[in-house]
Structures
1.
Amino acid sequence: MSTSEKDMIVKTATVVGLGLIGGSMALALKERKLAGKVYGADTNSFHQQKALELGLVDFIGDLDEVVALSDLIILAVPVNVATLLLPRILDKIDRQVVMDVGSTKHPICVVAADSNKGNRFVATHPMWGTEFSGPTAAVSGAFANKAVVICDKEKSDHDAVDLVEKIYRALNMHILFMESAAHDVHTAYISHISHISSFALANTVLEKEKEDENIFELASAGFESTVRLAKSNIDTWVTIFQQNKENLLDVLNEHIAQLRKFKSCLEKENYEYLGELIGNANKIKRILK
Amino acid sequence: MSTSEKDMIVKTATVVGLGLIGGSMALALKERKLAGKVYGADTNSFHQQKALELGLVDFIGDLDEVVALSDLIILAVPVNVATLLLPRILDKIDRQVVMDVGSTKHPICVVAADSNKGNRFVATHPMWGTEFSGPTAAVSGAFANKAVVICDKEKSDHDAVDLVEKIYRALNMHILFMESAAHDVHTAYISHISHISSFALANTVLEKEKEDENIFELASAGFESTVRLAKSNIDTWVTIFQQNKENLLDVLNEHIAQLRKFKSCLEKENYEYLGELIGNANKIKRILK
């Protein structure tokens, strides 16, 4: 048995949506030889062409065509498109496995539960991304040593979860299991608010500094670090925020309240309390090494 | 003439305050052989010991002693200590040059203007830092290819500015000149608000997630990026915020207003405007490549 056959988990996989995440996933399946063939589907003809040029997939086809040919279908489209496409794909399959890789999990799990083939769906969220988008943003080895969440696994068939676990383990990911609703609460804190904060910081600076472009020569690593996520894709994030609206509003209200504490310290010249606020924030060292 | 003698700009330099910035500056002077000898002063005995152990300085002495021995004195203490120490140091010197490296510039320039030796002072701000602190955080080659601002140079003697420019050019820094008051407005936008945002984000997450430590396994690169500055030193930042209070309050109010726009979009389910806000934030690509 060759290395390639030994590593192979599925004969054919289709990645639907060849952007940052889908493109990186297709590349990972090909590079690690986890799928014999990797097919792609994307409504954007530029993405189709680039994905082929970059060797992310072996073949690009019509959605229904590639789904029919595949053992595993990976949905990597914006989360609002994923919830629309999932019932259509589940209707077309028999014993195949469908998984998604979106940043919100509760809405798609609700959609899956409404389908009589929902048991063939596995809801997942690999905790990796960058501020870039499209197939040209795809990265080799993107998922290694990152966490991935599998949600509501008791609603999926055992063999479907097993297959998805095998894929993620082969990619050296650390698998966590979580209820989809809990996932969406946590990612609001761990990811979505960071994006809102970066977008708002970028707008703050652009609003005030628009007449003085030279000033950006001053921008140092700290600025870049907090603002780089502001480059992130509009469609991806509008739809994530939309699907996780309630949780995100809770976090955003808390974040604005925390910022107001800093504001109040400055207004009242209460530098002792300001030091306490910063000291408390320093506790993040427990988490971020 | 040896390489060492050719590169030497001053025979002896003293760095006052051997933390992240002072330690890195001392190391740079030694490594690039820009000073024959580098002396250090620090009131913290742990810092003294570590700075010697790490070879950041050749000798640690009492402040007045090392100042008297030095051609160039570099103030790298928290900005509130710098404004207190500067008059004392200026009183002790004759033709020597004193420079600072603090993140606020207007308050120290006001202090310098009140001294009859203020012409021997050069106000500078190298645009480099990390979230770590103390002499163990000192980094070799920290300043290369970064910007440095020199403020109110018309108030300093020509030879003093020339000396400081020579040092920064030898460190491969890009020198900008600016009024101290303008510098403090710009750094409020480009640096200080990023720190407030990170501290407040850390507090937001720590507040909500304190009962569920496991969740931090989910934290991905985006979270780390926006929150890493929250590890920054209390004393350094309380005093920067204090000295730049008025500008920072302006920026903080603007930032809270920008966050409220995101909040309002979510509350009103106005996803078209949400997309516009993100699209506007994307314009930061002009600045951050």
Note: The beta strands of chain A are 10-16, 35-41, 59-60, 72-75, 97-100, 121-126, 147-151, 174-178.
2.
Amino acid sequence: MVVVKSKQFIYKNELSWKSEKKGLLASKDKPPLEVACPPEFGGHPGIWSPEDLLVASVNICIMTTFLYYAKNWELKFSSYQSYAEGVAEIVEKKLVFSTIEIRPKILVTSDRDIKEAEKVLRFSERNCLVSNSIKSKIILKPEIRVNS
Amino acid sequence: MVVVKSKQFIYKNELSWKSEKKGLLASKDKPPLEVACPPEFGGHPGIWSPEDLLVASVNICIMTTFLYYAKNWELKFSSYQSYAEGVAEIVEKKLVFSTIEIRPKILVTSDRDIKEAEKVLRFSERNCLVSNSIKSKIILKPEIRVNS
């Protein structure tokens, strides 16, 4: 039997605790990022928390997957902005992100592209590496309009 | 019947596409962060990708949870550094993060704190909001030594 193993993609980072509830995140060639425990768990305001970054990673991955498929399928759009909101609460005695709602606002160049953009967006969400890797329910609420 | 709903914690962010495969991530009071699709999927090197941020969020959350419990249990330590490596590959026809390995190096102040630190660390991983919210297998490989 021949076992064909899929290609693997590896993502690495280094984290160093600095003081109080703060640390510095690093990854080769990327600008270092200050991170911290959020205020509601005894941490600090104004600093990216792991909770923020999990929710953001879903938001960004849906966009980057959309950019990939939009290019492949020659979809024209002039703007993509997306608000994300993650809700953490106790479920079965564990604190987890129960839902992550993603609200992309996309401007397309013609009426006939509205449906096409929604199709590409929904396909992108289903094929997003990050949203496929998390347990939270992803709620996608797009608003797609013609750039007037 | 009285239904007691657990407290909810909400995390919000705003993402704007800028050009090519790049965008800007924002969240109230936090420094804006440039993000992008990674090079292996047609994106850009040297910029934080959603894949990076997912893996980082697990690494950071285990540290911030450890900081929380270490303080509560009065565990003394002088250093916490942690390397993380996420592996993305096709599993059941979908590209997902199959494993995320976290390698914390912790320096404690006395021999008797080595076991205690490992206990606090393992408890922190099991109670980490982010690792509880993802499907990937989390592999924790600590190295705990006395600061000499």
Note: Chain A has two domains: 11-48, 50-146.
